[in-house]
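Exercise 7. Given the encoded structure of a 758-residue chain, write a plausible sequence.
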């Protein structure tokens, strides 16, 4: 065999060798052949599959990241807030709105309280990227094991869930939460995320956000929380209903204690709490749950007044309704309680609103009042009515009734401010003389007017001073005086003092002297507070401050520049003191040794409204009663209130004023009016009978008017009994005593705006 054949034989043997091994020849390679499942799971295939899945997941994550957009708007619940209204001392009066939440900025939450939440919820908060992959894996593992879907959420994720998404536990929502959390973390500062988280959590007790929770559980604002209180709130959010110590069972108390201690221990671990201090800390017991303060009693009316004042500062009702306002009122809760008690004791307790047959007028009685500090302009108390459920609009703010003779001091102020003279050219001062005869026609007016005094009483012999005319609220004198002043000037002074110009103001009618325009108790309080404040303009304000994280509110300036001179203001105040101090003065009912006071009554035509406006150096208060038919809401008489007769300003309103003022000033070192510039004017003595006697002449027609160069228009003298009125600086003033005319009263046609008044 040649070499060629040998090589070929060897090659043939080599090719047959595998076949031989397949037959199981000893030493063959048949044992290395891959069979069954091993053919499919090679290391190359496993590694390839693993990396393929990773790549697919990464690709899916990229697609998911770019396909899920961060929402532009929060969910409907996230930004809903309540408005918090507070008394002047900062304590909460009421919360309004569907959602009990007040969003606060992070700087109003103590640093250690913030850290408490981070310690229990997300220790890596300031380091992570918005999500915690290990936590997510842990949560998924818990889900697979049937232990729920919760767990693993960072503070950012919880904020995203609360602010943008819902509480749904689906996998889809969880994926969206992860993606949005990444994007939020890139866009927002960590502090802003933490603030959002603290403001959107639900803490139980109907409290959303840490401010509402601080009030609900501990009765303090968020900024006043201690670390222990904050640690409890950080603990309770995991299971609000189960962990509330006021209602928790034994297991709930045990679990919340465990979580509370975990908060503090984690803070020690983070280096944020001293270990020795930690040992002294215990869980602080929260206060008992209280009903959310609402609109009961007078609170609804106070809120109405506050919102009305905000409207005037361009804060619309829609802005208010959106919530988030923290509004502190000027209302003093002690004075408010005193005013409410005075109305109850002096009026409501005397009414029988259920006896429609025997006491029909009692159903129509409405009361309103405003009390102001004249030095600051703060509205310290207000009464709006029997309650929002029965009377939806505040009587303190209503402008559909006239102020009656409470307007008369404005006429006098205008006369003094403008240097006006009587018809015979003499200066109008408190000692100036006027004819007080009832139905005396005014002189110098293009519009005829002959107002009747209350009960058709004649005053003077025949003349009386302006002081006396004010004490007795003599219509005929003030109707003549406003003609002497000019109605346009009186209106100008009224607006300067604080009244509002409304449609229907009687521009040039002498009846304006009797208060025939519309006004509310706040306006009249402004007028008298300005007089009390020596002529410096006072604008009563009910809002002390109003704060909102997104809006600015500047309370209106309460005390302004000089509206009338101090001389004018002090003189009018001195005259109004006479109304209270004179034995026969219409305001004598409020006289007291506990204070110095001035005031003025007002009773409108047909007795549909009655007012008393009075003031001390410390307090100006306006009390009004209105007759309003409960069905038609038309104006009806107050005569017959509480089963009595005519209900004028010197009746129930004066009684309420006195009871309230005594209570409000109790314990106060009351002062004296500093009337350094009051000027009563030269004493004038008219010619009259040395021995005046009561009139016996009938008043069947208007008295004849006579004039002379030295005397203002008068009627034929009607002798009257003498009575001494208040006098300035120890001088003797002319005297006047009211007398009623005898005989039948003439059937005079009604005169627009005629207001028999007391």
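Solution.
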């Amino acid at each position: 065999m040649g070499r060629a054949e040998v090589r070929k034989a060897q090659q043939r043997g080599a090719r047959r060798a595998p076949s031989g091994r397949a037959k199981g020849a000893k030493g063959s390679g048949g044992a290395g052949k891959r069979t069954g499942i091993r053919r499919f799971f090679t290391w190359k295939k496993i590694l390839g599959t693993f990396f393929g899945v990773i790549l697919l997941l990464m690709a899916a994550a990229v697609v998911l990241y770019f396909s899920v957009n961060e929402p532009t708007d929060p969910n409907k619940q996230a930004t809903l807030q309540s408005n918090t209204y507070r008394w002047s001392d900062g304590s909460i009066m009421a919360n309004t709105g569907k959602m009990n939440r007040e969003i606060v900025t992070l700087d109003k939450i103590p640093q250690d309280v913030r850290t408490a939440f981070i310690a229990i919820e997300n220790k890596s908060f300031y380091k992570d990227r918005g999500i915690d992959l290990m936590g997510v894996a842990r949560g998924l593992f818990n889900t697979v094991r049937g232990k729920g879907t919760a767990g693993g959420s960072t503070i950012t994720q919880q904020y995203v869930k609360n602010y943008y998404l819902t509480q749904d536990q689906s996998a889809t929502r969880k994926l969206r939460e992860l993606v949005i959390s990444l994007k939020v973390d890139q866009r927002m500062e960590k502090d802003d995320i933490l603030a959002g988280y603290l403001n959107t959590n639900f803490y139980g007790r109907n409290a959303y956000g840490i401010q509402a929770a601080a009030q609900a559980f501990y009765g303090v604002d968020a900024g006043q929380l201690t670390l222990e209180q904050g640690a409890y709130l950080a603990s309770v959010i995991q299971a609000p209903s189960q962990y509330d110590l006021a209602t928790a069972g034994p297991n709930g108390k045990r679990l919340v204690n465990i979580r509370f201690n975990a908060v503090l221990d984690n803070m020690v671990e983070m280096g944020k709490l001293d270990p020795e201090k930690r040992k002294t800390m215990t869980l602080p017991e929260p206060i008992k749950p209280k009903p959310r303060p609402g609109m009961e009693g007078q609170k609804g009316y106070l809120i109405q007044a506050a919102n009305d004042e905000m409207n005037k500062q361009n804060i619309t009702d829609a802005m208010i309704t959106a919530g988030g306002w923290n509004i502190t009122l000027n209302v003093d809760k002690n004075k408010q309680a005193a005013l409410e008690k005075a109305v109850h004791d002096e009026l409501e307790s005397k009414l029988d609103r259920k006896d429609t047959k025997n006491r029909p007028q009692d159903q129509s009685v409405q009361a309103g009042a405003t009390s102001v500090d004249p030095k600051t302009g703060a509205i310290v108390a207000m009464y709006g009515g029997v309650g929002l459920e029965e009377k939806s609009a505040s009587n303190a703010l209503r402008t559909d009734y006239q102020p009656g003779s409470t307007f008369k001091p404005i006429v006098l102020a205008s006369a003094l401010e403008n240097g006006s003279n009587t018809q015979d050219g003499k200066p109008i001062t408190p000692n100036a003389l006027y004819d007080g005869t009832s139905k005396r026609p005014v002189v110098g007016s293009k519009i005829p007017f002959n107002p009747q005094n209350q009960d058709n009483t004649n005053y003077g012999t025949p003349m009386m001073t302006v002081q006396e005319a004010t004490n007795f609220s003599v219509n005929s004198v003030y109707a003549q005086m406003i003609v002497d002043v000019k109605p346009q000037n009186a209106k100008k002074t009224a607006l300067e003092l604080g009244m509002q110009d409304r449609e229907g103001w009687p521009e040039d009618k002498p009846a304006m002297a009797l208060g025939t325009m519309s006004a509310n108790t706040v306006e009249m309080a402004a007028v008298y507070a300005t007089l009390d404040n020596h002529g410096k303009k006072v604008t009563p304000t009910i809002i002390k401050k109003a704060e909102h994280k997104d809006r600015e509110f500047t309370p209106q300036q309460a005390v302004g520049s000089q509206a009338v001179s101090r001389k004018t203001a002090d003189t009018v105040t001195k005259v109004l003191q006479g109304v209270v101090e004179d034995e026969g003065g219409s305001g004598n009912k409020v006289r007291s040794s506990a204070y110095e006071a001035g005031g003025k009554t007002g009773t409108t035509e047909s007795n549909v409204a009655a007012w008393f406006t009075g003031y001390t150096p410390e307090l100006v208060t306006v009390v009004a009663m209105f007759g309003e038919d409960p069905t038609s809401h038309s104006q009806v008489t107050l005569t017959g209130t509480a089963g009595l007769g005519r209900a004028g300003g010197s009746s129930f309103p004066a009684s309420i004023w006195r009871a309230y003022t005594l209570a409000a000033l109790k314990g106060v070192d009351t002062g004296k009016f500093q009337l350094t510039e009051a000027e009563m004017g030269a004493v004038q003595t008219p010619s009259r009978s040395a021995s005046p006697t009561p009139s016996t002449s009938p008043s069947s027609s208007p008295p004849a008017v006579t004039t002379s160069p030295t005397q203002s228009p008068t009627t034929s003298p009607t002798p009257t009994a003498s009575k001494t009125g208040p006098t300035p600086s120890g001088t003797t003033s002319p005297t006047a005593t009211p007398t009623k005319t005898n005989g039948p009263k003439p059937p005079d046609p009604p005169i627009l705006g005629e207001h028999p008044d007391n």
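Remark. The radius of gyration is 42 Å. Students should compare their own answers with the one above.
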